[in-house]
Amino acid sequence: MFRKFFARDRMIMAGLIVLGVLTVIAGFASGRTVFQYALSTDARYAASQWIGKVEDRLFAQHSSPAGRISGQDIAIVAPKLFGDIQARARETRAYKLRIASPAPQGFGLLGGVDMLLSGWIASLTGYLDANDHVSKIRNFAVLEADGGLILRSSGFDPKALDSFLADTRFQAEFYKSLSTRSSRFIDAFAMPGQPASEFQKGLVVPLLQGDKVARVYILAVDQSSAAALSRVALLAASTMTSLLILLSFSVPALVAFRRTRERWETEDKLRFLAMHDPLTGLPNRVYWQKVLEQALARAKRRNGLLAVMCVDLDHFKEVNDTFGHKAGDALLMEVSERLKSCVRETDIVARLGGDEFAILAEDLDDPSGAIPLARRICQQLSSNFNIEGHDLAISCSVGITLAPAEGSEAADLLGKADLALYRAKHDGRNTFRFFEPEMDSHVRKRRIIASELRHALHNDGLHIHYQPQFDLLSGALTGYEALARWTHDDMGEVSPSKFISIAEENGLIGMLGEWMLKTTCRSACHWPGDTRLTVNISAAQFIAQDLVKIVGESLSESGLAPQRLLLEFNEDVLLRNNDEMHRTLKQLTAMGVHLAIDNFGAGNSSISNLIRLPVSKINIDQSFIHQMEGDQNIRTIVNMIVGLGKSLGVTISAGGVETEAQAQYLRQIGCNEVQGFLYGHPQPEIGEGNLTSQTASVELDTEPVLLPFENEAPPRENVVRLVG
User: Per the confidence metrics, is the pTM higher than 0.90?
Assistant: First the structure.
């Protein structure tokens, strides 16, 4: 549609320009024509006056024709004929001849033009001399109606005149003059030996007696006195006319051109935005799909090999949450520049959306040819970015698929590269992986689990188990941790480590977390007042939900005291160092709810954030508990975490305790609370007997024991140097 309008505007603009040029040319031509017409009119009137005077002198008066007439000598060629004409004129004593009119008389349009031009030429004459006309009669000859020469001026050479009278051009004008009874011009009239000029004209003027031609005057008219002035006047008049015409056409033409150019620019912008990412200027998904299809067609014709890469930034969301979307946009622009610097000129870099980019590399010699490019990308994006004065350290994961070996459809290849990208993230990020067929089956399984999990959440297909927690010194029961369990009809018992991550990926974690809170709070309200309920909160819930509102509703609906609810979250939440997250945690503690950091030490915790957050409990990651019996370094880490908890005045809890040796060692270093299979497995229901009599089954020794930690000195006082 836009192109049709632009084509019409271009045609209109071109038409205006052509019309303007043609009008200027026509203006010059018409100006010249008008001036020539004015001179011709002046010549006719000058000839009429001059012939009247000559006729009166030669034939009407009784004086001898000898001598000069109007400054010219006369040569009578046919004396007898001249005498007869003169005698007849004197006998009649009435001069009844008339000169052929130079133009129609009256008040019509042509008559008005003649009057105007005659007046203009007459005014020009006033600047030149005292005569009334610009045109000057230099030579003349009088002929009979049949063409016979009667007399001539002395300026006409006899031989030259005879030759001219016999010329076909003169003969044509002569007979036209006789037939039309009007005067005729012969342009560029000059006698032999004289230069021809547009201001030297010949004039054939019939002298009429009634309707018959009595005789014909041949006049040599000189208009050279008007030559210089005529050129100046013509140039001035034509220039002014041309300027006016140019302005009248150029203004609309310029307006049309400007409108067309603006529409062209708008169309270019729309076309660019339709095919490119407005932030980075890279091709977008639509353009990428088109380019990939063309590349696949070329590879098929040439039997070539190409690689499709999906590049995703690691932890990009943390940048947006911590520094804001403006910094995130600046980071994306810098990433796009680094990606373009990594690829060849023939490769294509596109932004598919968010922090996901795609790269097309054609003409590879073999599959390994994609590896150097993937390594360059990982290396470039792992270097620090300076964004708005902040040094940001991110990385990227790259998924690679090859065509046509692994597919010939653009959408299929992009999906396989995305699967490889997912595997790269799963394998630790900041790396690349090639697509493998089993990845597809793995993803299909996860999609099936996600679908079944959604169905289970809507149909009460999940249930909750509770695992007891004990005070390590007194052995008293302190509370229970609520754990989600899912038993599928076909898949059997689905591990929480599997379906929790799938819930986070598919946006189901909010529904799952809200169900957990409300269900467990209703159950815990029947427990004794000193028994605490612990519920795990996913980091995604801080973003996707109004956590404060959901917790408040759960407590209000169940009647559970806020002090009995402990919310655990992984230390990765500490990376989201923004005002909204801090505000949420403070609002929860203001309600009376306790907070705990789960799996501490296994993630990327920030000690400075830990100090500022209202945390009342730290859970040591289970992997440390399982490994500390045979690894001195792990025991050192556990000692440091316990020492940190003591320094901050918070409760230190150890999960996954399965042996008496682990329990004894934790007691020796000052751990406050334990949980694990050594003390009790998760159970679906909490009976009244459990709540009143359950205590830790491990004997409380007063002397330190080393058990498998042979040759190890008793733990000394923990002194931890913290760098915030």
Answer: no
